[in-house]
Write a structure and sequence with these properties.
two-stranded antiparallel sheet, 12 strands, six-stranded mixed beta sheet, alpha+beta, about 220 residues, about 25% helix, globular, tt1808, chain A, 4 helices
Length: about 220
């Protein structure tokens, strides 16, 4: 049998090789997207709520009136007995829309509360780095999926004890307690129910005050 050697492989043209090498080098050195930072939060428009979750800047418009009414009313109900000790045990600091820096994440819950033994006083600072004992997110159609997923996961990671989810359009309250790294739904109430909800079960809360005088548009 006669063996006929194959002809030598033609070397690529210099121009083609250079072009391919440049393309491969560009693909390798393409910089990754820079995670969002506090500078991005500070640069956000004043009419937007800015948060950073998992390195992503999230901008949301200021809440609509049903949302604002529910958050304000809840703070008014919990403030006297738990923040002031009037008609209740006291022992809490409760803040409206505090900016929280929890490791690399920056979030702004609608309401948050700390037991005094963990946060005995407030300093002249733009944000807090101590995770709260309780948070409340007032849901809106734009933010509900993030509040229920990304933010609840973040709060569980930071060992927040309780989370309340208030839906001012459906007029419901969901109360969750963290157990290990997971959330347990304790109960759900709606409309004008009178409830005792952890961790503020020392008083009876009338849910009706959260949507009092708020007229919703018919769908």
């Amino acid at each position: 049998m006669t063996y006929t050697p194959l002809p030598p492989r033609e070397a690529p043209r210099h121009g083609a090789a250079t072009s391919r090498l440049a393309k491969e080098t560009h693909q390798v050195t393409q910089p990754a997207k820079k995670p969002a930072s506090y500078a991005d939060v500070l640069a956000a428009p004043d009419h937007m709520v800015a948060e950073v979750i998992d390195g992503e800047l999230r901008l949301q418009p200021r809440p609509a009136i049903p949302h604002a009414a529910a958050a304000s009313a809840l703070g008014e109900e919990l403030g006297p007995p738990f923040k002031r000790g009037k008609g209740g045990p006291g022992g809490w600091i409760i803040l409206y829309e505090p900016e929280l820096h929890l490791h690399a994440d920056i979030v702004v819950p609608d309401l948050a509360g700390w037991r005094l033994e963990r946060l005995p006083q407030l300093g002249d600072v733009p944000y807090l780095t101590i995770a709260p004992d309780w948070v409340c997110e007032v849901l809106s159609p734009r933010t509900a999926k993030y509040d229920r997923t990304d933010k609840l996961r973040l709060y569980a990671r930071e060992q927040v004890g309780w989370a309340w989810l208030v839906d001012p359009l459906q007029r419901t309250l969901e109360v969750l307690r963290r157990e290990s790294e997971r959330w347990t739904l304790l109960d759900t109430w709606r409309d004008d129910a009178k409830v005792r909800a952890e961790p503020f079960d020392a008083i009876e809360l009338d849910l009706g005050v959260l949507w009092e005088r708020v007229v919703l548009q018919e769908s």
